[in-house]
Specification:
Chain lengths: ~190, ~160
């Protein structure tokens, strides 16, 4: 800074424009001490161009300082605050696409599926063995995967079909049981090509 | 996490919105950019669970504005000229000066425009600006100096007696 000031006091005309502007910026930023500011003031008293430059810079700084932050419309703030709930709702709508939800989901479908698997197992064989129960569950999970894929319309049709089957089983009209796939190599949900 | 998000909205929405208004000079577009910025914030918070700094938020908002400016047709209008009257510039009606300055800032090129908004309008520190604009500290100072110089050059001259 002292370099700027000595430049100014010695000969402004030989000083670079940037040095001159730097001194003004520092003056306006309050970085000049009283003595340096006084020197600049004296220099500008005898140099109209310098005085004009200081006033221009001051006017600009004053104008900038008085610019205020824009006020946010209330409707915008409400929209911003609603983002998390909207996003969560959207995620929930497509949760069935996530295979993890098939295993831990709490939807009606999972509950019904588990109940169905037990009903089928009980209806078909009064004393199913463990492997058969497991296979029945696997089968229901396969059905669920397709349930999930076919949204509302198809979902309703499938549910009706499953309900009919369930009623038949409960009424003692169980359809002839298809021989299960190889119990040793049950179909895995994750292998289903959706 | 939602509480943290809401706090980010309440604390920084004015800065994000102001940045967008100054850069775009269109409040409707500025609202859209602000909303998009906070949507990205929420997605990031959901994905990483990490704290997000104000600098990141403003950086995203700035990028959103720049994208929109690029998509606009090339602008033909320059900063409206102010009549070079004889009164000192600081006697100009404050409203008039404010409007003129906003237009003048909007018409600066990047990164000058962002620098003036961040430093002179929003009063961010040089360090934070350097982080937001991915510039060095000295680049911030030099470019800010040039930006102010350009603004000053456009101001009507003051007659000193």
């Amino acid at each position: 800074m002292k370099d700027h000031m000595s430049d100014i006091m010695n000969n402004k005309t030989k000083m670079s424009q940037q040095t001159f502007d730097d001194a003004i910026e520092e003056l306006l930023a309050g970085d000049l001490d009283m003595q340096q500011a006084e020197l600049l003031k004296q220099a500008s008293a005898s140099d109209q161009a310098m005085a004009s430059a200081i006033i221009d810079a001051w006017a600009l700084r004053k104008g900038l300082d008085e610019l205020e932050l824009e006020s946010v419309p209330a409707t915008l703030e409400a929209r911003l605050l609603a983002i998390p709930s909207q996003f969560q709702a959207r995620n929930n709508r497509f949760a069935w696409l996530n295979p993890a939800s098939w295993q831990v989901g709490q939807s009606w479908a999972i509950g019904s599926a588990l109940a169905m698997s037990l009903i089928i197992a009980i209806g078909i064989n009064s004393q199913p063995n463990r492997a058969e129960i497991l296979q029945a569950r696997e089968d229901i999970q396969i059905a669920l995967a397709y349930l999930g894929k076919s949204l509302n319309q198809a979902d309703r049709v499938t549910r009706d079909e499953l309900n009919q089957q369930m009623h038949k089983i409960l009424a003692g009209q169980a359809p002839p049981r298809q021989h299960h796939r190889d119990i040793e190599n049950p179909i895995k949900v994750e292998n289903i090509d959706l | 996490m939602q509480k943290r998000f809401n706090a980010m909205v309440r604390e920084h929405q004015h800065r994000v919105f102001t940045l967008a208004v100054y850069m775009l000079r269109d409040r409707a577009e500025a609202e859209d950019v602000t909303q998009e910025t906070y949507l990205k914030l929420w997605q990031r918070m959901e994905k990483t669970g990490e704290e997000v700094k104000r600098a990141w938020l403003l950086q995203v908002a700035r990028n959103g504005c720049i994208d929109r400016i690029r998509k606009r047709r090339p602008q033909t209008s320059e900063v409206p000229e102010i009549e070079d009257h004889r009164d000192p510039v600081f006697a100009m009606e404050q409203d008039q000066l404010g409007k003129w300055l906003k237009d003048a800032i909007t018409n600066l090129k990047e990164p000058y425009r962002s620098l003036v908004i961040f430093r002179d309008v929003q009063q961010h520190s040089y360090l934070e600006i350097a982080e937001m604009l991915e510039l060095s500290l000295s680049q911030v100072k030099i470019n800010l100096y040039r930006a102010r110089q350009q603004l000053r050059a456009k101001l009507p001259k003051v007659e000193t007696t």
